[in-house]
Structures are given as structure tokens and as C-alpha cells.
Amino acid sequence: MIFQKFYPTKEAENVYVIDYEGLYEQGFRGLIYDIDNTLTEHDAPAGENTKQLIKRLKSMGFGICLLSNNQEERVKMFNADIHVQYIHKAGKPSVKGYERAMELMGTQKDTTIFIGDQLFTDIYGANRTGIASYLVKPVAKHEEIQIVLKRYLERIVLYFYHREK
User: For the chain, how many structural domains are there in total?
Assistant: First the structure.
């Protein structure tokens, strides 16, 4: 079906319920995260839950890279307390940012997983790159109008995704 290029490998309620130990056991070593609406609300700094999660993941041995279409100021502000690799103005769903993230972490396609909240940028880009992905539900309840419109289209894709599962 035409929608399969937008299908995530897996879904999770949020970034905190993902079985990272299981991912590590499966051989994953690099985690690429979207920021806004995945780890925090738009334009918000890293919260305490995110700081603790990143600290735990680093101690497990994961490489972590933030991949954002935002300007560097936004990404730097979010990264100030968690200190991970990052790429700003990534141009998702272009594969360039995903490949650069793997390069920064020293991982390969089969050892890297992407975690994000949008099908048409985050997940589609991961699929185009050939890496596994997790789709998480958006953190924020209120979103910008262009994202709200994309969410309606995402519902159609997710309907077929869940039907095929």
C-alpha cells in the first residue's frame, strides 16, 4: 500500500515507556530523537524527566543525538542540561540529517533507532534512511495549525497501519 513508507517500526505512548533495555539487548546502540512534541512541548527546555532519561540511557551505553528542523538557538537551549550530540536545521525527512547523526554517534543503520512524533517528517525520514523507528504520541495538547492539519492526514495513515498489523 502507498502509506507503508510512513509506517513506524513500533509505537509507544511516550519516550518514557520504551523498553530501552530490550533495544540494547537487540543490539541497538544509537538513539536519534526529535525534540518538540517528542521529548518536550514546543520551545520548552528539557524537563526533569527528560534529563533523568538521557542520563540513564547514557549510563547504559547508548549514543544519543537530537535531530531537529529548528534553528540552532532552540536546539542548543534544549540541549543545555543534557549534553548530547545534535543537528539543527536537519531538513527532515531528508536522509542527510539521519546519516550525520549516525556518523556522530558511530552507529550503523541496523544499530540505530529514531524516536519522533510525526509520520511525514520523523518516521518517513527514518524509513527513507533505512533505520528502525518509534512513533510516540505528541506531548503537547495544543499545536500550531499546520501541524494540526498534518495530524488529520496522519490519522488516515495510522488507520491503515493498525489495520495491517
Answer: 1
The pLDDT confidence band at residue 1, using thresholds 50, 70 and 90, is: low
Domain containing residue 53: 2-164
Distance CA 165, CA 159 (A): 10
CATH number at residue 38: 3.40.50.1000
CA atoms within 13 A on the CB side of 130: 8
Residue 117 DSSP class: S
Q: How far is CA 120 from the centre of its chain?
A: 12
Write the pLDDT tens digit of every residue in 24-48. Answer: 999 999 999 999 999 999 889 999 9
List 132's β-bridge partners, or say none. 113
